């Protein structure tokens, strides 16, 4: 499967994950993996979504950008999905590093 | 300062300039209603929360400003959901403040508990669950900012009962939430767009609700006239361009005129402003404007390239982009293109009725429009009467056509008309409805009677769910399952029993006089107009077909 990792920086409070997963579900897309953890002082979280890379991804990225609690969305095609094994360090550094 | 959460909600609404709210009280929002007693804000009691939601939409759609509605927890919140989803699809700034069971009870299946936050995630622009009274200081102004900034939309604020009764102490009130302007990006883009328009041979403006929301009909008119570009509108765009202007080519899409949809096949440039390429407008997308380059300007970046790839696009508020764009558009007579369009309009017009009878829906609409002034606000319900209104009523002014465009909610018309009348007390509001739709929120006649507003309801009564019956006739082997009513109430009689003047036009000696009276006498009026059951809306593009394949 041709996969993509979507990296999000979001406000950290209850309901944010529902907004994000709900938006993706409404597009009838499946999420293959989710990593999530707080960043810094805990006001924000970083979320990594592992998804199949198809024509819907650019549209989903735009719609994610419209969500009030989403601060940043970065689709990472170059990201090795194996980073899903490295949860703790990714939460600190971001997948691009 | 020290006060309860409920008092703070009311004070913050006052500071937002809210003078009227609508809603229904119940156990979980009674503290807010207690606080309302000490405020100059007027409350309009609807008779169903969906009605309250559409009343606030009527206020918001005619003014462009956020309107507020209250509902209690559980069934109150569930009832208002249809009106919220409707506001989302048509980009209407309404703020719905719902009561919720106390935080300690949440998640326990408490009496009248429902997960309002979870239910409203997919149908709001944003929603809040307020967990403490001091959060209201930021949430209420922020809700007003969100509802009216960028692409407008509904915001839900769910407030548990203990948050309403909880004390909050603060130094000073927060600043009221304002619209944040979104400025367009890139002068190069605007120059490229202008060049593309100026060098095109057969351009067409395709405009929608974004023109009304950005108040740029003046700029649109200037641009179209200067460069002689014909203009088609979506259902939501009706009124954004004057129907009397020769460059107006009507509404496009499923029930557009033949000439409109034929012109779309001919153009080399489509200039899409404040539209979202809805399936009812485009028909089969791959065959929509098949020979045209696409320019798309919209305030919502997620709409760009969503349905149709663009050649040039710009994200931004039309308020700014139109001001920059119009001066760059050259004078151009486009004689052969305008001649072609004029010729197509003459050759392929909307069908005209074969009778003069005012009981024909088309003649009825022409009669109404001849008696109404150009700023009269029309609301519709959903179905055949809605499409006839879109086709034949001459809209010439923005925000004069209120209709449930995206969501297509039957029952929209009456409460939306009440909201429009509250916000525009100097105007006459005409609700054009159908017998199926009208029954879906008929309880709001009681609200209308409370307020004695200048609302005239005209029911095109064909004893059927007309557009369903039409589709069954055309596409489902004439099997009229569940579309024709076995019985129907006496609508004039019902109106009378609500204390509102009601007439059945068939029983009037002089129907024209009766219609004129209903539009000129102060106060509400209901007219039941029997129309033929077999009347169809033509043309019609079969679902999934290209626009050129219209029937009728």
Largest sheet of chain B: 6 strands, parallel
Overall 3D shape of chain B = globular
The proportion of residues forming helix of chain A, as a percent range, comes to 25-40%
Estimated share of beta-strand residues of chain A: 35-45%
In what order do the strands lie side by side in the largest sheet of chain B?
3-2-4-5-7-6
Protein structure class of chain A: alpha+beta
The largest pleated sheet of chain A is described as: 4 strands, antiparallel
Enumerate how many helices of chain B there are, as a single number. Answer: 22
- Tell me the overall shape of chain A: globular
- Average pLDDT confidence of chain A is 87
Beta-strand percent range of chain B: 15-25%
**Largest interface, chains and sizes:** A-B, 15 and 15 residues
For the CA atoms, what is the radius of gyration of chain A? 12 Å
The number of E-state strands of chain A comes to: 4
Please give the share of residues in helix of chain B. 25-40%
**Poorly predicted spans of chain B:** none
Assembly state:
heterodimer
Walk me through the structure:
The complex is a heterodimer of chains A (97) and B (552). With 97 residues, chain A is an alpha+beta fold. Chain A is built from three helices and four strands; from the N terminus they run βαββαβα. In chain A, a hairpin with a 4-residue loop joins β2 (31-39) and β3. Chain A is globular. The relative contact order of chain A is 0.30. Chain B has 552 residues and is an alpha/beta fold. Helix content of chain B is 37%, strand content 17%. In chain B, α1 (5-15) packs across α2, α1 runs parallel beside α6 and α3 (49-63) packs parallel to α4 (75-89). Chain B is globular. Chain B starts with a strand and ends in a 22-residue tail after the last strand. The A-B interface holds A 14-15, 18-19, 22-23, 26, 58-59, 62-63, 65-68 and B 117-118, 121-122, 125-127, 129, 146, 300-302, 304-306.
